[in-house]
Amino acid sequence: MPSPQTLDDADRRLVALWAADCAERVLPLFEVEAPEDDRARDDIERTRAYGRGELDTAGEIKRRFDAGRAAQSVKSPAAVAAARAAGQASGVAHMGAHAVAYAAKAASLAAANQETARRNEVRWQIDHMTPDVRAALSKLPLLGENSSGPLGTGLLASGVLAVTIREIQAELSNDVAAG
Prior knowledge:
Blueprint: H1 9-31, H2 39-51, H3 57-62, H4 66-70, H5 77-90, H6 97-109, H7 114-127, H8 131-138, H9 159-178
Helix pairs in contact: 1-2, 1-5, 1-6, 1-8, 2-5, 5-6, 6-7, 6-9, 7-9, 8-9
């Protein structure tokens, strides 16, 4: 029996394209510190190739830590979060919420007014969801409600990552209520 936190392949591909766009918005925060390190950019390009059906799910799950390693090559928290956003986008075959949460975190860490920057990034992410992406993400359980997968009670269930995911999920719940 599949986990309730697992999307089918078609939905994963839709979410991958959206997650790549979200991660790419903060990629310059990484690249300014590590201009010779192309791992994060490669992860985003691979995410898009996966979204277009050019790569398989199993291969992308295996490679999802490449940009995470890129995060070790930078020092600022914003650059680290941007690299993690790219890495998590490439692992969207596994779960996409990580990527967009890290993208919002990266944007906030790079700004003087961190909460405003995070909220603006979340608003951009929501505004750039297609109806199909919204429908796919709406199939997932709420953060922290099911311990069997990446939206369980672990790292994403607290702090700024959790706040971001919960805001996105609240927006999706509004879609369901209005629908």
